[in-house]
Amino acid sequence: MAMALRAASRVLLRAGSRLGRREAVDGARRFANKRVLVETEGAAGATRIAVMKFRNPPVNSLSLDFLTEFVISLEKLENDKSIRGVILTSDSLKRGNQTKVAATEKTEEKRATRDHGGRLQERPGIFSAGLDLLEMYGRNPAHYAEYWKAVQELWLRLYLSSLTLMSAINGASPAGGCLLAITCDYRIMADNPKYTIGLNESLLGIVAPFWLKDNYVNTIGHRAAERALQLGTLFPPAEALKVGVVDEVVPEDQVHSKTLSVMAKWLAIPDHSRQLTKTMMRKATADNLIKQREADIQNFASFISRDSIQKSLHMYLEKLKHKKG
Ligand SMILES: CCCCCCCCCCC/C=C/C(=O)SCCNC(=O)CCNC(=O)[C@H](O)C(C)(C)COP(=O)(O)OP(=O)(O)OC[C@H]1O[C@@H](n2cnc3c(N)ncnc32)[C@H](O)[C@@H]1OP(=O)(O)O
Asked: Which segments show compositional bias classed as Basic and acidic residues (predicted)?
């Protein structure tokens, strides 16, 4: 009987659910899609916290597949009544023995950093490189529309989430990476001057959409957002803290523990009053997009299809490819 149970549980653990794999690890629970790993902490029956780790090599860009998996994972957590708080972070760790594959190799796999066993690796020190430039360059308008709908969906889900969301920013966080962070209720950033955060779209020759601009204004205020958006400012941690893009800066090895302790304070507040307050603060901003979603998709598709914009993106991609260091 015991053997049969063990065999059955092995089968269950191996079986991939529609949403991804589910495993039991050291008492904690986890499920994983290919690009998002979700680990939950806390005893069964008690309030639990989930940590969503991005692992979309090489730079956690928000590709269509990543956005889809992210939304599925978030929905799953929203539906789990024992989960009240979620931490967004990158799975990218400093690892040794990495080799950057030649820039002349074009496919996604080949662009990634690999270890000596040839396995794909995240590049270290990146929270998220933002929207995937390859989803916005050299594709057709139908693809742009599909992609933008997915970007909107993720933003709406995060911005209106009833969960307490925190970001543990353990790396560079430009543009769409900053978007992920500023949808959260609280942001803690690693104190590493190599990491920057902000909306740098203007440097790429593109423009942040109005709803992202609104989210930024709600976070850092109108004047600071006006200046930072025009200049495409990427703030190092100390400046990000000063302007209010992040709420705390802590030594890199304390980002996770600090986020957990802040989360515990937030979870001491009754859910219903915190959630109603959050909705009161955010609904108008989200409704502004909801009522004109389709027009926003069409605007994006036609804007990004323009020759001049494609040319800017091409130049930016080339610059990234040939940059030193
Ligand atoms: C009229 C108004 C209408 C409204 C229309 C709206 C318009 C659209 C607005 C959309 C809003 C856009 C938001 C965005 O998020 S755009 C993306 C912005 N992201 C960036 O600028 C980040 C660029 N990347 C970097 O700065 C660095 O890569 C980074 C600091 C993240 C990491 O540096 P590192 O040195 O570690 O790694 P590499 O630079 O060598 O990069 C490794 C490979 O990854 C490729 N890469 C990097 N970023 C991206 C990306 N965002 N998407 C796709 N690919 C990316 C990079 O090219 C390297 O590739 P190779 O190995 O082939 O060289």
From this structure: 103-119
